[in-house]
Amino acid sequence: MPPIQVFSLDDFIAKVAQASFNTPAAISFPEINTYLQKYQDPRQADAIMKVQQELDETKIILHKTIESVLQRGEKINDLVDRSNELSMQSKMFYKTAKKQNSCCLIM
C-alpha cells in the first residue's frame, strides 16, 4: 500500500507567498489539481476510511471461510454417522453369517 500524501496548510504556505493571499487569481499552486483529483475518492484521501474498507473486505472473506469450515464440519459428521452405521451393519452381517455357518462343519 503506497503511503498517503496529506495536503497540509504548511505546504501551501511554503510554496505561496502570503502577499498573494489577497488576490486569489494570482496564486499559482499547481499541486492543487492533483490534490483535488485525489480527494474526489474519499478512500484515497482518508487513511481511516481506507483501513475500514480493507477490514470490511477481510471480514467478508473471514465469514466465507468460517461458513465453509462449518459446512465441512457437517460433512465430516455425516461421514462419521455413515461409518458408524456401516460398522453396525458389518457386525450384524458377521453375526448372521456365523449363525448360518454354524450348522455346517468343514472337515
Give an account of the 3D structure.
The protein is mainly α and 107 residues long. The chain has two domains: 1-42, no CATH class; 46-94. The protein has four helices and no strands. It has helices at 9-15, 31-38, 42-45, 47-102. The longest helix is centred in the last third of the chain and has 56 residues, at 47-102. The mean pLDDT is 80.
Ordered list of secondary-structure elements with their pairings:
Blueprint: H1 9-15, H2 31-38, H3 42-45, H4 47-102
Family: Belongs to the synaptobrevin family.
Pfam families: Synaptobrevin
Membrane topology: Lipid-anchor
**Major pleated sheet:** none
Q: What's the alpha carbon Rg, rounded to whole Å? A: 37 Å
The class by helix and strand makeup works out as mainly alpha
Beta-strand proportion: under 5%
- How many beta-strand runs? 0
Low-confidence stretches: none
**Overall domain count:** 2
Shape: rod-shaped
Share of residues in helices: over 70%
The run of helices and strands is: HHHH
Separate helix tally: 4
Instruction: Compute the separation of the termini in Å.
Output: 83 Å
Mean pLDDT, rounded to whole units?
80
Q: Which features does this protein show?
A:
single chain; 107 residues; mainly alpha; 2 domains; 4 helices; rod-shaped
